[in-house]
Amino acid sequence: MEFIQAVAELGISLSDNKVRLLNEYADLLEEKNQVLNLTRISREDFDTLQALDSLAIVKAIPTIAEAKVIDVGTGAGIPGVILKIVFPQWDITLLDSTRKKLTFLDEVIAKLRLKSIRTLHGRAEEIGRDPEYRQRFDIVTARAVTAMPSLSEWCLPLLKTGGKLVALKGETVEDELAKSEKGIQVLGGGRPKLISYDLPGTEIHRKIVLVEKIRTTPVAYPRASTIIKNAPL
Which residues contact 41 (CB under 8 A, 6 or more apart)? Predict the structure, then answer.
């Protein structure tokens, strides 16, 4: 199945300009990957394993309106850059703790002339305590970052009440989700929703964990990184 048709099955229509920008981003990623090792996914698999996989976020948030979004552990900009290209009305912050990756993303933003998107250097547990970012976002995205107990404590403090954490996961997420439910509640999240689906035109099975923020996160969270790692909620 062609990429544009597969994306259409998600309910997304791609203009020629959006396809051009996605291809330019993929080319930049392939070029820089030779020296920075940004991704293990080849250029040939970009459409399916990165672009289509990222756009499947609409399985969790079917109504795409204006939103303030932070992509935690963005790495090479996935899904953040792809979401910005396809949903230009979103205001997106790309958060990562590795400076060289953000330098690459600054180059992408400049070359593609993307607006209302910026990089942010730091660790999520530190940014979540900063009043400039704490409880400021409508959506937090995270793709293949870490297990849900730690990810929840990184992400939920960044969300406004009523905001949503969208964690793009593989097939084996049930165990880590079960271990995170108590912590999610402590952090102000509602009961997690698990969304299963196949990527259109493929046999690839994916899952999304969707958590709505229903109350303010207590001031004690997020904790220091070593505590989060060694004593998950």
Answer: 49, 50
Interatomic CA distance for residues 23 and 171, integer angstroms: 28
Distances (CA, A) of 180 to 82, 117, 125: 28, 30, 17
Question: Peptide bond preceding 232: is omega within 30 degrees of 0, i.e. cis?
Answer: no
Q: What is the pLDDT of residues 139-194, one digit of tens each?
A: 999 997 888 999 999 999 999 999 999 999 877 788 888 889 999 999 999 999 99
User: Identity (one letter) of the amino acid at 222?
Assistant: P
Residues 75-100 have a mean pLDDT of 95
Task: For residue 117, report the phi and psi dihedrals to the nearest 5 degrees.
Answer: -150, 140
Secondary structure class of 103 (helix, strand, coil): helix
pTM assigned to the model: 0.93
Exposed/middle/buried for residue 119 (C-beta within 10 Å: 0-12, 13-18, 19+): buried
pLDDT at res. 68: 96
Rounded Cα distance, 204 and 156, in Å: 28
Query: What is the pLDDT at residue 223?
Result: 95
Q: Give me the helix-helix angle, 148-155 and 174-186, nearest 10°.
A: 30
Taking the C-alpha atoms of residue 104 and residue 205, their distance in angstroms, rounded to an integer, is: 30
Calpha distance 96→77 (Å, rounded) = 9
* Cβ neighbours around 216 below 10 Å, total: 12
